[in-house]
Amino acid sequence: MTIDWSQERILILAPHPDDETLGCGGLINKAKRAGADVHVQFLTVGDTRDFSPAGLSTAEERYGEIKRVADHFGWDSWDIAFPGDDYHLRLDTVARVDLAGVIERYSSLSVAELEPTIVVAPHRTSYNQDHQVTAEAAHTALRPSNTRLRHHPRLVLSYEEAADQWRYDSCPAPSLLVELSDADLDAKISAMRLYGTQMHQHPHTRSEPTLRSLATLRGMQGGVALAEGFHVMRLLV
């Protein structure tokens, strides 16, 4: 299977700022280099207590990071559906009909408005509750129906993050590998550095050695040097 990335309009669903880079930063860079349109729908962002020296990353800091990463990759647009502390790390308190509705039609970056050819979402087996409900809402929003009445992206993928792998039975092996160049992986690492509040020293699931190791593993599984792994939810050829 080959993909002409120059012809694709890609919608990436990210529960929080940095998930799109962790899960598919290499794909983003590869697709943008080829001329694809790439749009990122964040679900939420807010203040976050963390293990950084400050002990807290603020929503204002995260917005600044998004803008720098968007410029770095050259995204065509991005949006945050549910901003603020009422939703951040609390998306599991939002009714799925509302989450699915934003993804399906009630957003400037919804499937109905954007009509993407490819949608990429988090995998449902993540330990993080915001990731889980985003994945399930995407599953609902992208459900099969009459293509004459609703837009159907021909390729729907779930991305993986290293943090998903810590429990051996939690996440199946990827069913699609996207080959990356050294430049694609370097761009992914550089973008994570721009997410300064989220990048960590090794050993951590969001460290540079972890990201490089996972790309090397997935590349080996495909017989190439580097790759990102995805789970196919729909492929129409």
Structural write-up:
- With 237 residues, the chain is of the alpha/beta class.
- The chain has helices spanning 19-34, 59-73, 96-104, 111-114, 129-141, 182-194, 208-221, and strands at residues 9-14, 37-42, 48-49, 56-57, 77-80, 118-122, 155-159, 176-179, 227-235.
- The protein has one domain: LmbE-like (Rossmann fold, 3-Layer(aba) Sandwich).
- The longest helix is centred in the first third of the chain and has 16 residues, at 19-34.
- The mean pLDDT is 94.
In brief, what are we looking at here?
This protein has 237 residues and is α/β, with parallel strands linked by helices. The protein has 7 helices and 9 strands; from the N terminus they run E-H-E-E-E-H-E-H-H-E-H-E-E-H-H-E. Helix 1 crosses helix 6, helix 2 packs antiparallel against helix 6 and helix 3 crosses helix 5.
Layout of secondary structure:
Elements: E1 9-14, H1 19-34, E2 37-42, E3 48-49, E4 56-57, H2 59-73, E5 77-80, H3 96-104, H4 111-114, E6 118-122, H5 129-141, E7 155-159, E8 176-179, H6 182-194, H7 208-221, E9 227-235
Parallel strand pairs: 1-2, 1-6, 2-5, 6-7
Antiparallel strand pairs: 3-4, 7-9, 8-9
